[in-house]
Amino acid sequence: MRCCVALRRTFLFLLISLLLFGPSTSLASSAGEPAPFSDYRELPLNRILFPRIGAPALAEPGSKFEVFVAWVAEEVPDPDVASWSASLESLYSEAGSYQLTVESQEFTGDSWRLVLALPGDVQPGLYNLTLFAGGVRYVGPYSVYVLEPGESSLKVAATTESHFSLRRAPGDVAFRESFVDVLNTAQALGVDAFIHLGDLLGNVYDEETFAAFYRLLVRSRVPVFLVQGNADWDTVEHDKYYWDKYLGPIMRYRAEYLWITVEAMNTDTGRVSDELLDRVEADLVGAETPLKVLLVQYPYWQNSPNAQERLPGILTEANVTLVLFGQDGTDEVLEPPDRAVLHIAPKTTHRAVSGGFRLLEISKSGRVRYWDESVPNGLLNVSYLQPNDGSSESMAVRVEYGVSDRDYGLSMFEEDGSLVLTLPVLLKDVGREISVEGADVAWQSRRGGKVVLLLRVEVPPGGDLTVKVLQGEDSIPPTITVYPDVVVKKATLYYDLSDVGVGAESVEFYYSEDNSSWTPCPVKVVEEHPLHYIEATRPVMYYKAVVRDAAGNVGTYYGQIEFPDLGPTQTTQPPAEKGGLTLIAVGVAALAAIAAVSVLLMRRR
């Protein structure tokens, strides 16, 4: 039976690969040079085919890059007369916006190929790409990264297998929290690229999960390179093309900078079609940059005889410098003669403490600097206690930095023995005076109804700290919504914390049989993440949640849980003198409608 399943999966992969490469699906074909990405089955959300938020362009002041835009007749009725203009925009740049020069535009029948030139005074950083034509405006969020002029090396953070989902289940909650913190930590270090090597999502088939992951990337301030993993491909096998819509090309793409080419290739579970290998070979051999990097998830030397036979020769012929792969987060380095070229795998983001990301420095000279192991989450962790998207009035950021006798590559970001981090903060501007605690303000601006800050912190080993940015006072307690998952006589307490101030920081749960005397809820650690639960002794049990925020405010809330398997229910009202608020518990049936990423219990080492 396992053989039959494997054969079926191989057939599906090859079939869908052919469909994705077939001429009927082409959205960027041209009589000239082929597009640097695979064909789309579903239009991108913003109509920009390339670059994308998961496949960005690298550029420097005064350089050029290509852009591909899909034609939608309802939006641009007459493509022959459409005249495109373009700009780069960022709230974090001094100018805010830079006009680009459209050096050429070519309509290919279903899309445009544009060549855009940057002005020489563009401030380095990550930008939205905005395109205008015929009254329409398309915005590609954070899809262009401008490096320092003459930049000769890139600092990279690589990770894999986040298995992100919105499900409220023990592993899913841990995976979700851990990935968010890894992304925030890489951002704070100020790496030039964050590379995710597949299995972004945990075998999900709903669009909202993809949209939620997309929103996380839109909040970040680091360019992100994505490649499909087998868990991501599973969604495609169910005829869902949300990856196309929100993230980037499914099968392959090539991002080319002055001296480096990044090629991403979908390897499913090690199965690679000859058609895909042909395209990747053409990309890598044809690339004229001195340094080339290939991104894959599944080891191509497993389960794919054609890739195992062909790819080593392609890597050698094309002078590929580095292959990054991500299956199982093996955190290993494979060098010649074991592999044709240098291969490196990072850790996964699965675990809240032992998971992590790998640091690399890739130089124009062809040198790849790497360390023996990935940075563990338990050593360095950056957590934002509010959504960093301009919707909150205040913000707290928790930085946890432990002590280790190993480097992990963190020395690249140290000064005088302390780790130097930059924390971007984006708040809603309510017109009040801004105060900052625990960090130096490197840059600040008020524009577009937002408060924009770059905060600098120096953290010595073992020097945990909390940075607070406030507009006015924070005196309102945080709140909580609880989602009890009842199985016979055990209830696991999932929850969301919320706060109108700097952000909720922690919660303590207690249970009671009589709604009067309280005992701390037991905690079970699953995937290195704490879960509170109640073992029922009666048909109705009561719980109390004590929630604290980073400003020291405390809110106490009460709720009850029914256990029908233990008999008929009879409730007891809490004593009037107890105070606090009655909490309405949301049942498990409502979970599918919840899209927000949880703010979870702060980890401590």
Structure write-up:
It is a single chain. With 605 residues, the chain is α+β, with helices and mostly antiparallel strands. Among the domains are: 153-170 and 191-376, Purple Acid Phosphatase, chain A, domain 2; 380-471, Immunoglobulin-like, CATH 2.60.40; 479-593, Sandwich (Immunoglobulin-like). Strand 13 (260-265), helix 6 (274-286) and strand 14 form a beta-alpha-beta unit. The longest helix is centred in the first third of the chain and has 20 residues, at 2-21. The chain is globular, with a radius of gyration of 25 Å. The two termini are 45 Å apart. The model is unreliable at 1-31, 576-580 and 584-605 (pLDDT under 50).
For this structure, what is the CATH class of the domain at 153-170 and 191-376?
A: Alpha Beta
Tell me the major beta sheet: 8 strands, mixed
User: What is the overall number of helices?
Assistant: 7
* Unreliable sequence segments: 1-31, 576-580, 584-605
Kindly provide the radius of gyration, computed on alpha-carbon positions and rounded to a whole number of angstroms. 25 Å
CATH superfamily of the domain at 153-170 and 191-376: Metallo-dependent phosphatases
CATH architecture of the domain at 153-170 and 191-376: 4-Layer Sandwich
CATH fold naming of the domain at 153-170 and 191-376: Purple Acid Phosphatase, chain A, domain 2
User: What coarse outline follows from CA principal-axis ratios?
Assistant: globular
**Strand residue content:** 35-45%
The overall pLDDT, averaged over residues, is: 90
